[in-house]
Structures are given as C-alpha cells and as structure tokens.
Design goal:
The complex is a heterodimer. By secondary structure, chain A is of the alpha/beta class. Chain A is built from 14 helices and 24 strands. Helix content of chain A is about 25%, strand content about 35%. By secondary structure, chain B is an alpha/beta fold. In chain B, a hairpin with a 2-residue loop joins strand 4 and strand 5. The chains are: A alpha/beta, B alpha/beta.
C-alpha cells in the first residue's frame, strides 16, 4: 500500500526535481523566533510531585488533582504505541519540563497586566490581542461601532507555554451566554460542567498520549455554547510554545448545547530549536441535539531543519462526540508543521441522524513525518460521514493517511464517503494510505476513492512553458490539488492556509 | 525571427547513456513565415521543440539559437514564454484541480507581469475566452473543468490551440498537432491556427504527414533526418514526400 518510494521516471526528466528536492530551510519559517522573558519552570522530570505541582499552580480543587493522579498511575503502566508509520528516537519523558509560565502569570487580571514581550510575540505572529480589543471595543464601544460588524471578529484565547495569558471578547461573548475562557479558570469557575464533560469523549485511559495529557495538562480552552445560541463570532485559540526544554500539554473542551452553533479555529507555532519538543494535546467536542461544531486547525509547529534536527513531536488526540440527534461535527485541518504528526481527529456518531466530516490537508517536506487521518464511528441510525484527505509529500518526507470507518450493529442505513488523494513532489518522498473499514450492517453505504499522483517535471515544464515561474507553477498545481478542502476553511484562514502551503513547499522543486 | 546555427544537442537521462540527437541543425525562420519540419521517427523533431522551449534533460553542446537577435538558450522557459514563444504539445499534460480558464488566466497574468504590463481584467479575459472558444467550437463548460483531465486526445489538442489563441504568442511551435484529430477537428484547429498568421508572427509546424499542411500552408518545408536539415524546399516538397517516401526524397541528390 505504499507508493512513491522509488518511482522510475520516464526519460530521466525528473532529475532536476530529485536533485533539487531541497528540504526546508530555516529562514523560511518566520515564526521561529524566541521571546526573551523570565520563565518559571517546573523541575525537570515527571512524577507524582510534578502532577501535584501543576495542580497546585492552577489552584485546582481536590477532585481535579485526584483525576490527574489517577491518570498518572495509569500512564505509568502504559506502553507507547508503535503502530504508526513514524520513526523517532525514544523520548525520555524524564528529560523535560512539564510546566512553564512567564513569571507572575497568575496575576494577569486584564489584558493590561500582560507583559509587553508577550503581547509583542502575538502581534508578531499576526494576532494583536490588545489592538484587537481596543480597536473593536470590548466594554461598550461595540454597540455603536457599525463598522465592526463588517470586520469579521475573532475572539482569541492566547496560550503561551503552559498558561493562557489572555482571552479576548469575553464580556461581549458573555452577553450571549457563551463561556469562553481558559480551562484552568473553568475548573475553578464551572466545576459542574467540567466534571460532567471532561474526559467524557476521550477517557482518561484512552491512549498513552491522552493519558499523559490527562495527568499533566496545563492549559487550553473551555467553550460552552448554551441552548439555541449561535455563537456571534469565530472563537480561536493560539498556541505558542516558547520555553526551551518544555512540552506543551493543552486540553480543549467545547460543548455545544441543544441547537447551538460554534466555529472554532486553532493555530500553533513554536521557535526553532535544535531539540525535539513534545506536544501532546487532547481536544474533546460534545454536540447535543441539533448542535453543530466546526473545528479548524492550522498547525505550523516548527518542523525541524533540513536534516531533521529539532522540531515538534505532535501527538494529539482529538475527538468529537455527536451525542445528540441531528448533531454535526466537522473537522478541518491544515497540517504543515511538526517533525512528527500523529493525529486522528474523529467523530463518534452516537445520535440518530448525526453527521461527521473530516477535511484534511497534510503537507510534509524535508524530513517531516505525518501519520494522520480520522475515525468515523457510526453508532446511531442514519448517521453520515464524509472524509476528504489530501496528503502532499515533498523532500525526503513521509505522509500516511490512516483512517477507520466503523459501522456498528444499530447504525441502520449508515453512509460514508471517503476520498484520499496523495500528491508526491520529487522521487524521495513517500505517500501511504491505510483505510480500515468495519461494517456490521448490510444496509450501510460505504464509498472509498483514492488516488496517488506525482507532480511531475513534465507538468511543471508545461506550466512554465505557458509563462508561470517555477514557484508559481508549484503553487498553482498544489492549490488545484487541495482546492476542495481549502474551500471548507473560514475565509480568513483559507488565505493564511494558502500562504502557508506555499511557504512549506518552497524549495521543494529545482 | 528565429535563427538556429549548427545546433548540437543531446538528451541527458537520469540513468542510461547520453545520446546526441541534434547534430548540426541550421535553420532560419523569418518573421511572418510558416515553416514545416518533416522527418521520420527519431529524427529529432520533438527534441528540437524541447530545446527551443527550454525543457530540462537536454543539453546544447554546440551552436546557437537567436530569437529576435537574443540568445534564446540563456533564458528560463517562462521567460521565453513571456517573450512570445509557445509550444503546442504533442502530449498535453493533465493538471488536476485547476480549471482550464484558471490556468490560462494565471499564465496570461504571469506573462504580463514579466513584461511589466497590468493584469487582464475579468471581463476582458472572459471576452477573449468566449471568442477563442467559439472559433474552436469548444463547449464553454469544458473550460471550467480541470485542464486536460478526462479529455479525449482531440479535445486536448483543441485546448492547446485555445491556449495559443488566448496567449497570442509571436513564435509558435506546433508539435504533431494533427495526431489524434479527425478531419473535421483538423479543419477547425487549422482555422484557429491560421487566424494567428501574419502580423509578424512565425510558426514552426512539426509533422509526420502532409495532411496538416493542406490546411496550414507552409512557406517553406524542411526535412529533418538524423539531427540535421537534409533538404529544404517550397510546399511542393511535402507532396513529394507523401508520394515517394522519406528514403527516396532524402536519397535524391
């Protein structure tokens, strides 16, 4: 099931591509800077003390601490999974800091308390936390600002290493009853909601990395959309890993109550470092009757240099539960970063007539490795799912689609459509497709389409003969390949994603 | 307009031996003229078109090519295109996910940008496209589909000429444009090509058969064999070839 390893190219025309499949160069990763700010770190290593340290830092109630400790006990007995098509040296879990916060972070009450270094960091990343609030107004100014209605507004939760440093538009959102805050605050302020839902989609014992996260998760975002409310703006979290020798373990929980709707965006970056840093996140989505959640990710963690030195190890568990009837969950991801990506955003289609979607663009270049896909678990009647995956491999990278469509005994008339397309640029990369199907229903309707194509030197020459420069030609061809997924992203993110694709693939051809 | 002098070129495969294909080819195509290149299989016809347009994998070892007095071989393929060089491919490539019009518009704007001209406006582009499609009897819906994907051989050739009409090149190379076309399609395509004749535009028509030259009448006919022009003449040379075959014509003193 693997293609692309040693493709023979006719006429020897492909040599230019092969020779020139230069890997990523560090100067192309514009998010690779380090913010110089005094940090407070947990002592290196992972033990019960570490778990207690984090819980104490967060001033958590006893139940939360116990939850974490149980996860930690469990994790100690678990074995790191090895089934994915990725290779990396053994991770020394004792050789990292499990908590890092800017000094005095606990004292930020408003955005004015956030140190300017951090605000500048986000501004540099294109997320001006403060300006956004000031320009568009938080307290009162909004009512009169007709212009603001024309500007798409996005509320941001900014997570810097292990802490949420600012959450914008909270007051505005609160007017609609929407809760949007860091999960640390939510543990203290909404313990009932947390106890009811946390771990209800991704159980504490789910898998090695999710269990690790359950023990040491530091911060992340909590969203609750009340019954019948359509969230008035896009919500987003921007994750930034900054400190050296740390891991980031964020936890996100989104609940859309009956008839609610929310669109949520997630962005991630990290500085360029020689070391490999671990990122093990858990995202849980719950959609009750008639609710809809759209979750989009633009992941641009530092992928490591051309020789594969450094880069983020991204081991993420994302799962949505269509708990209610007619509920809908849609995952859209653009994965361009990380040295290793291990990620399968999934949907449990529990409610009757519920539907799940997964749209993915995964790009690997240089020595990146990605093993990503989805699981669609059909439990309820008339459940529908749709999977569209576009994998692009360049350089010496490896890109695997791994997906499961499972139709259980009670899922009458379940339907799935899966389309997996792989694009190879150059002859040294690999694309692999591993679709699994389990079906217990004779009336299920399951379709699967898969293609593997190679962006050939012939195509590039054809485009250049018509007047397009080499990079323009690659961009046009790659955009053609991913077009149907890009159209699923919220508009402002689609533009960013398109740019990101171009940057990620720069230097992938001669 | 195009001057080839003593051109030697070889194909440089990734593996396997290099072979010299063009062995001292000299040719001059003045502005406004249509020249035909005929020759048996393996004589170097396609290599000539690729060397002129700058495809990788070919190495010029000797000789020169001047395009309007400029050293053509020193330019990147896209620069040659912006200067008006166009190749109608013998085997047009499939470009998945990119509709015909999107592709052509990107190409047109890329050329204009290189020449320091403003981008084409959407209404102007649509107007040009409508005229070209009508001329070539192309269903407008076809132009919204990904370029060449799932099209028949004849449709692909028609789309090559559509691109040519849109981009308005000044020097056109038609590589076996007649292959895959039935007689009706051949007439439509030839009419499209003839619409671009004159106004200082030149063409190099590469073909096996004389058939295409009944519709696109050449000013000169050259016979290419073993990498060199072995015989040149007027349109009557093509007829002679058709009648007597390459061996006889080339064997004649």
């Amino acid at each position: 099931m693997s293609e692309g390893k040693n493709i023979l190219v006719k006429d020897g025309i492909d040599r230019g591509t092969v020779d020139a499949a230069r890997a990523l160069e560090s100067d192309k990763y514009s998010e690779g800077f380090v913010t110089d700010i005094e940090m407070e770190l947990a002592p290196k290593g992972l033990s019960e003390e570490t778990v207690r340290y984090i819980s104490a830092k967060k001033e958590e109630p006893e139940w939360m601490l116990q939850w974490r400790l149980e996860a930690f006990q469990r994790w100690k007995e678990m074995i790191e999974p090895t089934w994915a098509m990725i290779n990396y040296p053994k991770i020394d879990y004792q050789d990292a800091h499990y908590y890092a916060e800017p000094k005095g972070a606990a004292k930020y009450k408003t955005i004015d308390d956030v140190p300017k270094e951090i605000l500048e960091t986000y501004a540099k990343l294109g997320i001006p936390l403060k300006e956004q609030e000031v320009l568009l107004g938080v307290e009162g100014a909004m009512e009169t600002a007709a212009a603001a209605r024309e500007t798409p507004r996005v509320a941001v939760d900014a997570v810097f290493d292990s802490v949420s440093v600012a959450t914008t538009f909270r007051a505005e959102l609160a007017k609609s009853g929407v809760i949007f805050m860091s999960i640390s605050e939510a543990v203290r302020e909404y313990p009932d909601l947390l106890r009811q839902y946390l771990g209800s989609v991704v159980p504490v014992t789910d898998n090695f990395f999710a269990t690790l996260n359950s023990a040491v998760f530091s911060d992340g975002t909590f969203v609750y959309i009340p019954k019948g409310v359509r969230c008035p703006m896009e919500l987003s979290t921007y994750f930034r890993m900054n400190a050296k020798g740390t891991g980031q373990f964020e936890r996100t929980l989104i609940i859309a109550d009956e008839g609610a709707y929310v669109s949520y965006l997630e962005g991630c970056t990290a500085p360029m470092r020689d070391e490999n840093q671990l990122h093990a996140a858990v995202v849980e989505l719950v959609a009750l009757d008639d609710a809809e959640i759209k979750y989009s990710t633009v992941q641009n963690w530092w992928p490591g240099d051309a020789e594969g030195k450094g880069g983020i190890y991204n081991f993420v568990t994302k799962r949505g539960d269509c708990r209610g009837a007619r509920s809908r969950i849609s995952w859209t991801q653009v994965e361009t970063g990380s040295a290793i990506t291990w990620k399968y955003p999934s949907c449990i289609l529990r409610g009757d007539d519920s539907s799940g979607e997964f749209y993915s663009i995964a790009v690997t270049n240089g020595r990146q490795q990605a093993d990503t896909g989805t699981k669609m678990i059909h439990l309820g009647k008339n459940t529908r799912s749709r999977i569209i995956s576009k994998g692009i491999s360049a350089g010496k990278s490896n890109n695997t689609y791994r997906g499961l469509v499972s139709v259980h005994g009670k899922a009458a008339k379940a339907r799935n459509f899966t389309q997996c397309d792989s694009l190879l640029i150059g002859g040294d990369c690999g694309a692999h497709t591993m679709p699994y199907v389990e079906n217990r229903r004779a009336d299920a309707q399951l379709e699967h389409e898969a293609t593997t194509t190679k962006l050939s030197d012939d195509q590039l020459f054809y485009a250049r003969q018509r007047g397009l420069g080499e990079e323009e030609a690659v961009a046009l061809l790659v955009n053609g390949f991913v077009r149907d997924v890009l159209q699923k992203l919220p508009m402002e993110f689609a533009v960013e994603a398109q740019k990101l694709l171009e940057v990620s693939l720069e230097g992938s051809v001669g | 307009m195009l001057e080839l002098y003593n051109l030697h070129a070889r194909v440089v495969p990734e593996d396997g031996p290099q072979r010299e294909i063009l062995k001292g080819l000299s040719l001059s195509v003045p502005a406004g003229e249509v020249h035909a290149i005929m020759g048996p299989n393996g004589s170097g016809k396609s290599t000539l078109s690729y060397v002129l347009t700058g495809r990788d994998g070919y190495q010029v070892t000797e000789g020169s090519v001047l395009y309007e007095g400029e050293d053509l071989l020193a330019l990147a393929p896209e620069v040659r295109a912006a200067k008006g060089l166009f190749l109608s491919f013998q085997y047009p490539l499939e470009i998945a996910g990119v509709p015909v019009m999107t592709f052509v518009r990107a190409a047109m704007n890329a050329q204009r940008k290189q020449r320091g001209e403003p981008e084409v406006s959407a209404p102007d582009f649509l107007k040009l496209s409508r005229i070209a499609a009508q001329q070539l009897r192309i269903d407008p819906d076809m132009l919204k589909r990904p370029l060449n994907v799932g099209f028949s051989g004849g449709e692909k050739k028609r789309l090559e000429i559509y691109q040519m009409l849109m981009l308005q090149p000044r020097f056109m190379i038609l590589d076996e444009t007649d292959s895959g076309l039935d007689i009706d399609a051949l007439k439509v395509v030839a009419d499209g090509v003839n619409a671009l004749r004159g106004e200082g535009r030149s063409m190099l028509v590469i073909t096996h058969y004389q058939r295409l030259l009944d519709y696109i009448k050449p000013d000169r006919v050259h016979i290419l064999s073993a990498g060199r022009i072995v015989k040149s003449g007027g349109p009557e040379l093509a007829h002679e070839l058709e009648k007597s075959g390459y061996d006889t014509v080339m064997g004649a003193p």
